[in-house]
Amino acid sequence: MFGSMTAFLIYFAVLLIIPMWASGRVKATYKKYSKVPASSGMTGAEVARKILDENGLYDVSIEPVKGQLSDHYDPRSKVVRLSKDNYYGDSVAGAAVAAHEVGHAMQDAEEYAFLRFRSSLVPVASFGSNASIFLIIGGMLLTMSELMLAGIVLMSFAVLFQLVTLPVEFNASSRAMDQVVSTGVIQNNEERETKKVLNAAALTYVAAALVAVIELVRFILMYFMMNND
């Protein structure tokens, strides 16, 4: 009994600690390099516009958005939205984030396979993320393995979405790094700092995927235990 309780506590500690550590890492890294001005003196909006134009993406616009680290690319509206600090600021962190979001715009323009696959998963992944836990818990309480299995199947789509997100984000960061170097947005001595910002951001997606996989595996094991009983 004590061993089971210990394992249970460790499991939940891992689920809490991994995302908190990743989130803390990206915030600390961003905060540090948001205070380091880029040698080019370009704002995030200017960086984004320069890279977009260099790649012929004149139809993609750039807008400021409220919040910190709320930066994203909207493929429906063809808009790169940058948090105000990054939009108006001229930091290394702002340049890195702006270039990363433009990387998603480049993926969209090229119909990058993983981005298209991820977009196709959005409806079922969203439904699965919301409904799966109720089916799983319901199946456990009612000892209905079929109901639990249905929940696991739905959850698997949400987990697949998290996994497919990894190559999408890493590819966007790779494109960002190539672009800020080739367009002269950053100098050689700034490459290491830019990579640190991009790598820290990637950790949040890795953590989310890892937690999702662990959670799915746990429920699969519980399903088999229920059937064996």
Automatic annotation (TrEMBL):
An example molecular function term from Gene Ontology annotations: peptidase activity
Keyword entries, A-Z: Hydrolase, Membrane, Protease, Transmembrane, Transmembrane helix
One Pfam match: Zn_peptidase_2
GO biological process, one term: proteolysis
Entry-linked InterPro entries: Zn_peptidase_2
Highest rank taxon of the organism: Bacteria
Statement: the UniProt record of this protein carries the keyword Methyltransferase: no
Keyword Nuclease attributed: no
Residues passing through the membrane, by range: 6-24, 121-141, 147-168, 202-226
PANTHER family attached to this UniProt entry: MEMBRANE PROTEASE YUGP-RELATED
Name of this protein: Zn-dependent protease
